[in-house]
Design brief:
Blueprint lengths: L7 H7 L6 H11 L16 H12 L5 H12 L1
Length: about 80
């Protein structure tokens, strides 16, 4: 199994959010769980540019897609 190219810390930094472990856990605790019918990228707490980034990464199966998928799982748990 290949290691991901990026980390959660880097994903949150890429999204312009605080990226230390405590801040990431606080973000998830504050916004999760998302309803099953709501896609992660469509959640109302994202800015338009954050939402577009998440949509594009998943659509193109880009470098960040694996981490976006992992965040999606955590946000829907």
């Amino acid at each position: 199994m290949e290691l991901p190219l990026h980390t959660f810390d880097e994903l949150f930094a890429q999204l312009g959010l605080p990226s230390d472990t405590a801040a990431i856990e606080q973000f998830i605790a504050r916004h999760a769980p998302l309803p099953d019918h709501l896609a992660l990228a469509d959640a109302p707490f994202w800015t338009p540019s954050q939402s577009a980034f998440l949509h594009e990464e998943l659509r193109s199966d880009a470098d960040w897609a694996e981490l976006v998928d992992a965040l999606n799982v955590r946000m829907h748990a």
